[in-house]
Specification:
With 399 residues, the chain is an alpha/beta fold. The protein is 38% helix and 21% strand.
Length: 399
């Protein structure tokens, strides 16, 4: 059996609550690898070990999955060895048999302080043996290769490479939020940022089918499946919004319609959020991107919500968001052309500075509570799971 050593970073700062965070991360890793035969996960001192059959194909799949698990700082394919310097040196030399390097260093970590050598002593003695065997130059500042050694209570590990993890906190430790998922570039990135902060993110997508095509719904489903690879289970609510927009067009002056749409979306999303046990809303808005995202309009949009509204991208420019979407893997889906509900009945000159009084007067022509009730009652719920996707369609209901 081979080993993968998983390290976390932010979890280590959680003091007395750290065991609970570690337990959740272990549980998430087990869930993410549940369908991979003979993969075993256990918590060690300050790290987590996965044991798996010594097979390159399994390792390649583990790399793909571990890179997406929030809470992991880095992970390494490691060799377990006895807690003896001779055994560690023998293991390291065997691992280095086919490796060439212009320079190297040894980096040791002694988690068990009862081990007779300190970390610097381990580095000097093991480094001396490797230098004598391979005739490599030692470089402590810019080595071509680093040999990592970790000494634990009952065993030691040796490895040559660290793979970057997603970082952040384990999914599920920070409660639930509901994210308005447009199908564009921004909102999947906003959802992912909350997933990395340990939130379980519910997704709410507004569409105008059958007035427009169902392309935006198909994109929302693809994005939900993608985000599920990170948070392991997702719930997507598909809300029909076209008929609501038609009623707004008949009652609201053109310059105010975009903001009224957004206020309605927030009301509907908040109702769904409460039914699904979420405690905050999330949007992909950034200041100044479109008319509804001026400071004045964002303020009056937020005014209809009685729970916090998070905008994790609020200070980012478009290029930064695009780069993050590409890293996430959502960009190629987001740029697929579709007929988004935001473009339906959109006025040529939307207001960029509205007031609460203006909007309350305009909205008095509509039965807002009835519109929200209708949208929630007819919304479709779909559930997703990874690694064994199971998609189901269910009416909206309280969790």
């Amino acid at each position: 059996m081979a080993s993968v050593l998983v390290h976390y970073q932010e979890i280590a700062l959680k003091g007395k609550n750290r065991p609970w965070f570690v337990e959740r991360l272990v549980s998430n890793i087990r869930a993410a690898t549940a369908d991979l035969a003979q993969v075993k996960v256990r918590a060690l001192m300050g790290r987590i070990e996965l044991r798996h059959p010594d097979d390159d194909a399994i390792w390649d799949e583990l790399k793909r999955r571990l890179a997406r698990v929030p809470g992991i700082a880095n992970y390494s394919r490691a060799i377990r060895t006895p807690r003896d310097l001779d055994a560690i040196a023998e293991t390291a030399l065997a691992e280095l048999a086919d490796v060439e390097a212009s320079s190297f260093r040894v980096k040791a970590q002694r988690a068990d302080k009862r081990f007779p050598l300190t970390s610097p002593e381990i580095e000097r003695q093991l480094g001396g043996r490797l230098k004598a065997a391979r005739n490599w130059t030692v470089s402590l500042t810019a080595p071509g290769l680093t040999v990592w050694v970790e000494i634990l209570n009952d065993e030691a590990f040796c490895y040559l490479r660290k793979e970057p993890g997603a970082g952040g906190l384990p999914s599920g430790v920070s409660g639930r939020v509901a994210c308005l998922l447009s199908g564009g570039i921004d909102s999947p990135v906003a959802a992912y940022r909350l997933i990395k902060r340990g939130c379980r993110v519910r997704l709410v997508h507004f569409h105008s089918y059958p007035i427009l095509s169902n392309t935006s719904q198909e994109k929302a489903v693809e994005l939900a499946e993608l985000l599920t690879r990170y948070q392991l289970d997702s719930r997507l609510y598909l809300v029909a919004f076209g008929e609501i927009q038609r009623r707004v067009v008949l009652a609201i002056a053109p310059p105010l319609r975009v903001v009224v749409y957004r206020r309605l979306m927030l009301r509907i999303a908040e109702r769904i959020a409460r039914l699904s046990g979420a405690g905050a809303l999330v949007t992909g808005e950034a200041v100044g991107q479109v008319a509804s995202q001026t400071l004045d309009n964002m303020a009056v949009i937020d005014a209809v919500a009685s729970m916090p509204v998070f905008r994790p991208l609020v200070g980012m420019d478009k290029e930064e968001i695009v780069n993050e979407a590409k890293h996430l893997g959502s960009y190629d889906v987001s740029i697929i052309p579709d007929e988004d509900c935001c473009t339906l009945f959109a006025p040529k000159h939307p207001a960029t500075r509205t007031t609460e009084r203006q909007l309350e007067e305009a909205e008095s022509a509509l039965d807002m509570d009835a519109l929200v009730d209708e949208a929630v009652a007819t919304a479709e719920r779909r559930d997703f799971k990874f690694p064994t996707p199971a998609l189901t369609d269910t009416p909206v209901q309280a969790d």
